[in-house]
Amino acid sequence: MTANGWLQIALYLALIAAITPLTGRFMTRVFNRERTWLDPVLRPVERLIYRSTGVDEAHEMRWTEYAMAMLLFSVVSMLLLYAIERLQYWLPWNPQHLPGVPPELAFNTAASFTTNTNWQAYAGETTMSYLTQMAGLAYHNFASAAVGIVLAIAFIRGIAQKEKDALGNFWVDLVRCLLWVLLPLCLVFSLVLVSQGVVQNLRPYDTATLVDPQTVTTTGQAGTTQTQVVRSQVIAQGPVASQEAIKELGTNGGGFFNANSAHPFENPTPLSNYLEMLAIFALASGLTWTLGDMTGSRGHGWAVWAAMAFLFLAGVTTAYWAEAQGNPLLTAAGADQHVTALCPGGNMEGKEVRFGIADSALFATVTTDASCGAVNSLHDSYTPIGGLVPLVNIMLGEVIFGGVGAGMYGMLVFIVLAVFIAGLMVGRTPEYLGKKIEAYDVKMAMLYVLIFPLVILTLAAVSVLFPFGTSSLGNAGPHGLSEILYAFSSGTGNNGSAFAGLNANTPWYDLSIGLATLVGRFLMIVPMLAIAGSLGRKKRVPPSSGTFPVTTPLFATLLVGVVVIVGALTFFPALSLGPVVEHLLMLKGQVF
Amino acid sequence: MRVLRNLIVAVLMTVVTTALFGFGYPLVVTGLAQWLFPAQANGSLIVRDGRLIGSRLLGQPFSADRYFHPRPSAAGPAGYDPTASGGTNLGPTSKALIDAVRARVAAARSDNPGTPVPVDLVTSSGSGLDPDLSPAAALFQVPRVARARGAGPAAVRQLVEAHIEGRQLGFLGEPRVNVLELNLALDAQFPVRH
Amino acid sequence: MAHHVQSRSIWDPHILGAAAREALRKLHPRTMAHNPVMFVVEIGSLLTTLALVRDAAVGRPGLGFEIQITGWLWLTVLFANFAEAMAEGRGKAQADTLRKTRTETVAALLLPDGRTETVPAAQLRKDDLVLVKAGEFIPADGEIVEGVASVDESAITGESAPVIRESGGDRSAVTGGTRVLSDWIRVRVTSDPGHTFLDRMIALVEGAERQKTPNEIALNILLAGLTIVFLLAVVTLEPFAIYSGAPQPIFVMVALLVCLIPTTIGGLLSAIGIAGMDRLVQRNVLAMSGRAVEAAGDVQTLLLDKTGTITLGNRQASEFVPLSGVTERQLADAAQISSLADETPEGRSIVVLAKEKYGIRGRELADQHAVFVPFTAQTRMSGVDLAGREIRKGAPDAIRRYVESAGGTVPAELQTIVEGIARSGGTPLLVAEGGRALGVVHLKDIVKGGIRERFAQLRAMGIRTVMITGDNPLTAASIAREAGVDDFLAEATPEDKMRLIKREQSDGKLVAMTGDGTNDAPALAQADVGVAMNSGTQAAKEAGNMVDLDSTPTKLIDIVEIGKQLLMTRGALTTFSIANDVAKYFAIIPAMFAGAFPVLMALNVMGLKTPESAILSAVIFNALIIVALVPLALRGVEYRAMSAAGLLRRNLLIYGAGGIVAPFIGIKLIDVVITALHLA
User: Fold this and answer.
1) What pLDDT was estimated at residue C1?
2) What is the residue range of B170's domain?
3) Neighbours of chain C (3+ CB pairs under 8 A)
4) pTM, rounded to two decimals
């Protein structure tokens, strides 16, 4: 670990803190339909969209209609993506003439992008045409991010309003989120990325002549060896920057290329890397401010932010420590993992030199805290403890800033539970910002909390028992269990990153993980919106000194405690057989 | 019932927003990028003598002794295949990984005995396209390259040092050496006579 | 006001025995299903029992560990049942005492033709008229329609001094099972048999009518949810264990599950609820529903009657203010003489003040041919006539009339003094001798000692106090200031009260109040917590959701505390229960997989001897902690008047952090013991 590494981490958090009020205030204005400086340009576009789609701007929806509209939009747009994937061969902008995507993979990808997961069982450069990438995948990056944000806004409205049945209009929220929040940021950000070297074109792949042609000997299936001379390098191209920008800002994470943000064309420089990391938290963190703003308790927004920041710091510290510490087995094999001025040291397997250990560990933490899932290094090759951090981040429910919107409403469910326990402990019917938390709310919150481990643990348990699950493993021993746990956590948590040694493009994994992403998104949204609707209808009890304050460090501590305890208690047994035992075995020098 | 009404909106909304964000937005960005940053937008390509020889941002395989070798790559059989980007995904307790590293260490040591082998030189990157080496890993190879080119190690070392890129803005990332650029400079400065 | 807190020892052997029997009876699945957490434990115990039988049948050797695990699992269920049975037992014991008073009484039923007929009390119906004479038990709840009597209500209230009950007004309600000591009354029965106050009281303390309160339901959902989560974690652990080459026997899996699910709170939850009601009963308050008790904990506004709650209820002399030309001593002397025979508290306080301030001693007036003139509603003054002197004291206008009718004049100065006293919150009492006004006695409402501190505590708890009084705003403001209440409602009419309650409620606040009169009934019904005085009318008792048998208005504050304590106990034990899991993981997980992965013993931070002893210790701890916490569940966690943040910090520290640490110590100790005993 280096001072420079810590400086980057500390500055990162400081910058996020500084961005939070900016994006947060802006989102408050946008969703309260107040005037912004973008109105002269965007208002006419907005009205045109309503006119052409038949949206009644003044109509307000109950939580049930809000949920229905959201589901209908998701289903329709998911079907469209599925169709584009299947038909891409006959569609334009396919310079490499890539064939249609097979059905299971197309389903998996459609589900995963609609749910903001962006789990990728495919390699982008050899599977998806430019059209699919742009109009299918990058489009869903916008749509799913906007859906997440507006759901969080609906929840916040439920808390903020008094005895009101409606939560807003889904279509209006969606359009405003797309136009005001996502579009301008992405336009600017994608051009900044291009300036760093991220490609943005529609040209066919280029072919370069190698300076040093390579003679390669490959062993065929029948044991025959084949020697071949490689003289050229095909350089994959595409409209990458426009997708890269929304991929981070919308916490989608689906890379244009297989190597995702480790790929130099997606993430060419340490600066592009830093900006991408900032973009991942920018909106999710801003929503904590929006929460404070809309509910009239800025302090509460910051308390939630602090809880998230604490969990983030705990994660990044652990990951950075573990990766900088390196892998004793590599040392035994003769590699020098010491940090010097000329070498980053540490566990460099699966990491890029330009990012080194600190920026890799930071990225891994950020991308899994948020349900982004972009990666700039391979989590599968992290040390057991270093890899435990992203896994646990996801298992905690993707609430450490979390996916845009999804992190906010996920955290709000945890807040409901935390406040419930706290309320009991101070001898009052629990209330949250003046809203009484009653049996119905607890029931829905528990349902939300329950679905998550149900999907992860059940599907993982099935996978480890049967050959169709274990035959995909890229690593044996405890690490194999980690790979499977990670896959279903990532899918259900709508993260999308992977312990990518697992070959996930099999019928079983395509279907099961596709299903996990859908359940992890939509089945959890319904109880969440039900709570929002229930809270929205309630009276707001004025606070008194008998009310447990939700603006204090004590509250932040309690919230952290609830998130950690719920997550840890649920997953500790499974983790003890995965990363925990692997770490202990690694120290003993065992390999698999 | 509002289901039908919302379904119609859903269909129309999907169409309209796809047009705007699936086509309009990327095309606008492409136009702006091609206008403002044409070199970067097209892959920071390196053309020598009218021939495309690679991208500044993408690593290339080198295995001849006279060149600096990049990090091991899992992208494609020859490595550094941009149509097959990715890493080994081998876990920390993978026998395959540890055995491979041990073999690479042994090979590296025969080039430059007695010097600790920098970890990045014997581990593969996540992208399989890592264009960089740590300065230590580049310097480690100086004796071999100098020997193969019949050049003075000090001169080669100087060339490497001249190619060390510091941290961006002074604190971002890690110091590094772009292997392709270093090897091109090597060819220019210490040409090998065939 | 007899504070008759029946402190019953927690370990009363009689209750213990009954509870033990009841614990077994509660093993019936239909009963267990009410408590999802413990139901899961019972199913787990059944599973291990079956597995044990199977293993024994095939003659597997060395079943010591399996037998012990199974035994402790059953004990866990029994302990939880026992805790509930004990809480119920305490209520039952109370109910038995009450039942004894419900002796087979007969009633003298008044027939329409005026004759009486003797019928068993059980046959009385609503609206029957009965005659009750001295020495007889009142056969049913009712309202006196005629007569006045002193009644011994000790059976219900524990208060031994008889009370006066009379027809009309606010003291007309009588309770079945109480006894008329003197005179006779005619009573209209107001409840059908089985629905009398006594019946309801018995049912309540027995817990027979116990319905789960809203917060209890919510908590139950939380606990059921957690149980499912742990069920998932444990059930899916088996496949992971198989993958890792370390499949686990069912004993171990069930042991892990039972240790993880929140059995501590699950086992004690209903006991906490029952005990909360019990605590109210011990303070002589009957809550008509558990919901009301919970609501009491949420109260944000307390409406308190001034008289009896905030002030002693009697005004006392605090100062003699003479008119010019009269000395203080003269005035004091006259006032004292006129009060010597006045047995009202005001009168007595004048005598006391005169003695304290001027050393005027009581004198024997009998030889002076003194004639006392008692207070009447017509004259509104009292006094004494003795040898040539005629002294009167009374309300300002009454005395003024008296002086003027005697040909005297009232100086303007008097009016100033009277107004000054009124403005300061006092009551002026004029004293005159013959036709001459001497001065004014300043009577003051005396605020109860310690009440100010009590209100400060309430404020710290976030509760606003509002004083209700019939006094004028000036007087009310002055008393309010002295007592430290947050607000007051002066010259309050029942409608004003109602309006105030509704306004507070529309702000989202919960309101509690006490009342006794029939005109209080609407407000009592409207308030979230309405405490009717037992001395009050039947209408008031029907309208409120609690009855204070002692009829002490300050009881409201106790009720709020009990309500809070009830919730806090649940919250604290929930936190404790969940926090316990950390240590249990550290005991059981390494033990489970030590065979396949000896390196996992690194997690055995407690240094438990063997895998068997580790698992057994965790299970034993889990069972014993239920018993160990029974007293806490029954007593409730200590309540302190402090801000919510302070309370939370304190409880998180004790039950959260303590809940993490305690089992580490407990499990280690049990491990040491059972290893020493060679049990594992």
Assistant:
1) 33
2) 45-189
3) A
4) 0.89
